Amino acid sequence: MIRIAAVGDVHVDKDVLGRFRPALEELPERADALLIAGDLTRHGTVEEARCFVTEFGGLGVPVVAVLGNHDHQSDQQARVSDVLTESGITVLEGDTTVLELHGHRLGIAGVKGFGGGFAGASASNFGEREMKDFVGTTEVIAERLENALKSIEVDALVALTHYAPVPDTLLGEPLEIYAFLGCYQLGRAIDAAPTALALHGHAHHGSERGRTPGGVPVRNVAHPVIKQAYNVYQLLTEHVDAELVAS
Amino acid sequence: MSTQLDEYLEAEIQSMLTDGRIAELGITVQRREHLLVLGGEVESGRRRDEICRQINERFPDVHIVCDIGITRASAPSEVEEIS
Ligand SMILES: [Fe+2]
Ligand SMILES: [Fe+2]
């Protein structure tokens, strides 16, 4: 059994310091690792990244993150990543990390992701340069996720993104902005590998649960959606067959 | 001339919320007959107060009510089994 805690969209700045810490101090009793689904900061500054590290660092369990669009706002995403990495947080962008937990191998593949929309209402790689750049970015990022997911053999495989891979978890958001909240290409990447769970954030007004077309459970862990410091998910539950035990 | 409670005002407030220092993409703006209701959730009381102050300052003749909440950050009491 593995328990992973997850949250996204905590948007840390000086004014948030101390708000998550009491719940985070209890995290090692409840989960084996913490996954962060992007939007760690408000404007993606180095100063805010340091605030994030102060609040979410040194927990005694591994912390794995992807960045979100807010973490790109100041064009300092590389330095933001460095601040996180220096503090011991693993930042994924098109790559993977494998954690050994209770004798199980938990693999996490992560990308920020991008918009583009979903079946029947998606943007196409066609027309103006700007449009082709937009959808081209979506396609490249999804391909990197697919390759990352397929690159590891583990007992439980988790896909971590900021943007949503399915529309199910966007329910509650205005339909008109779905194309800016996620894309079907991320879902297709997740379905191309034996993914056990997909976690994302970004959709603050969305809903918690969904599934990809291929049946992979999807959870929107944006802080305003889960309304607590983090959610905890249990993977690889050992099912004991009661009848077998009895005989 | 007094500020019209129309779609342009709503759009202007949304862009104020996202463009500048505030950087909140998740605030809702609802027009009522004589007032404007701000909704959604942010990460701190200081952030909520700043949003309401800036919008009140920019549109002094509009009656604005601030129903923005602060997202709770307590530890979870349950575990969800994924299968
Ligand atoms: Fe966010
Ligand atoms: Fe976001």
Automatic annotation (TrEMBL), chain A:
GO molecular function: metal ion binding; UDP-2,3-diacylglucosamine hydrolase activity
Gene3D superfamilies: 3.60.21.10
SUPFAM superfamilies per UniProt: Metallo-dependent phosphatases
InterPro entries found in the cross-reference section: Calcineurin-like_PHP, Metallo-depent_PP-like, Metallophosphoesterase_sf, UCP008292
Keywords: Hydrolase, Metal-binding
Domain Calcineurin-like phosphoesterase: 2-204
Gene Ontology biological-process annotations: lipid A biosynthetic process
Any one cellular-component term (Gene Ontology): membrane
PANTHER family: PHOSPHODIESTERASE YAEI (PTHR31302:SF31), TRANSMEMBRANE PROTEIN WITH METALLOPHOSPHOESTERASE DOMAIN-RELATED (PTHR31302)
Protein name: Metallophosphoesterase
Automatic annotation (TrEMBL), chain B:
Domain of life of the source: Bacteria
The name this protein goes by in its record: BON domain-containing protein
